Amino acid sequence: MDVKEVANIVFSKLHQYIVDSESGKGKVLTQLPASEIVDLLNVEKWVTEGGFAPNGVEGFLEAYLPNTQHMHHPQYIGHQVATPNLMSGIADMMNGLLNNPMAIYEMGPAGLAIERAMINWLLKKVGWFKGDHLGDFRFLENNGGGVLTHGGSLANLTALCAARAAISPSAWVEGTPPELVVLCSENSHYSIERAISILGLGKNAIIPIAVNRVGLMKPTALLPACERVREQGKKVMAIVANACATSTGLYDPLDEIGQFCEEHQIWLHVDGAHGASALISPQKAHLMKGIKRADSLIWDMHKMMQTSALCAAVLLKDQRRLHNNFQQQASYLLHDKKKVGFDSIPFTIECTKSGMGVKLFWVLATEGEKNMANFIEHTYNNTLQFYELINRHPDFYCPYSPQSNILCFSYTKYGADNDFQLTLRNKIVERGNFYITSTELNGVRYLRLAVMNKLTAMEHIKALMEEIILVADNLKRKQTPYEIEENL
Ligand SMILES: *Cc1c(COP(=O)(O)O)cnc(C)c1O
Fold first, then answer.
1. pTM reported for the whole predicted model
2. pLDDT score recorded for residue 479
3. Label partner for 99 (CA 20 to 30 A): which of 58, 230, 434, 483?
4. Which of 148, 156, 189, 247 to mutate to test the pocket of ligand 1 (most atoms within 8 A of CB)?
């Protein structure tokens, strides 16, 4: 097998796919039944006979690519997964070919050095870095610490585990004490609830904090909640805030929540999986005001930092919290000073881990900080314009003005019925011209956009509104999707 030939076939096919997607050609999504796809890809034949590369590769891609979610298409406005910067995809290929696992330094010095430099860069953006330059790995007083993980869910678990170690150092050996509870927004990501159960607090240990009309945590609800917890003989392990909330893209008031946590000496964890990227933009950083008061933050690079999935960071204000996370002795003191470099294995739930730092580095090094900031500003500001367009239309309703690149709205010509909005969303996705999502906010269902692609422009949103009107009218006339197609 000539691997260069295979790589050339793959790259030229993918390149054409991306160019076509970017120009808005074809459907965003076609969903065939899974068994039909397996047939199309000749899975049975290739597994039995082998000999796939190079002869089968082209045919495979011709069947595979049309059945993907087209993330580069400007009418992909669905989940919060990055339209990847191509440099990140190429770094993925390099990682795959080199296969250096980021658990111990000797298994990939270059990859781990870059990971730690990227962690320093991220800490610097939060204001938790005390070093002189990105390659400064000294164990400095009041320095922050962090590690890259495969995804924000794992990052949330890592951060909450550190919160548990802080309040209950014996929990690692003796188990989680029954009196620990976590206060979190009613509107938090489900991975928080999972992390709390996995940590052995149990779902009942989640004390939901009241939210306002648009799902933001009410800081005034914190004191009464803490008092109730104390009366019950319980102890608050952490307060979890959203920056921003997955459903709405709105930021909890971090500064006020942070002040409360400081006054009551409670660990503040900020779930910034999507929204922490605002920190790199001078124009949008105010949305994260108060972040320095937090104890831990998670930040997904594969959402607004343009890296391919996965690449997430868990950051801690005090690096000792990271060092203490998975054992209750300060391992850095025992670290062999003569040993070159550092391992990441003491700080992560994972053992083998991919070279995620390189992906972020290649994107940053290609774009530069200024363009990265421009991207955040561009998508956030575009979404505000889309909101103005949609909200101006008498048959559309937006429950709030967006702070980020996530927008909720409903089509109200036939009423705001929850089921109707959901059916509308499903029909639109089934037709495949647009990919959008839906969410519930305070029991009301909305259509939802996450504007991840810088190519998504006013013309696409206008076309989406026309599509919604057409589909809604047809649904009301109880026509089949087939008839809708013919009317176009
Ligand atoms: C996406 C998201 C997560 C989960 O991150 P993954 O990388 O998908 O595991 C957690 N919290 C918030 C607020 C998110 O938006």
1. 0.95
2. 52
3. 58
4. 189
